[in-house]
Amino acid sequence: MQGAGKALHELLVSAQRRGCLTAGVYESAKLMNVDPDNVAFCVLAADEEDEGDIALQIHFTLIQAFCCENAIDIVRVNDVGKLAAIVGPSEDSGEPRDLHCILITNPNEDGWKDPALEKLNSFCEESRNVNDWVPTITLPE
Question: Which helix (H) or strand (E) holds 135?
């Protein structure tokens, strides 16, 4: 489990550096609607106080269903603060981003193969083998 957290941290940093990271429930839904074949990985994040947000839970359910239908690996993270520390504020406005949903996309130009992504894909496959369809990952400190 800790290896998966480290791999997710590495993937987020790498994807952001390459411009392959989309943050926000609405932005992610738009991207999945327009170009689902380009989505390589999905992260859903919620803190304890978000668990009571019915609208967010409905969004999560729809995103999870979409990812399952389109063979997109998906994980949950229970610490939006740690995600914010990794991903940081919006580069455009400097404002905090909606980090409840993060998509990692595959840039078409070079067939990007990230070892962290491959490790997470294996982790998700192993989780599905034990009927854990959306495993929870703990990010390292």
Answer: none
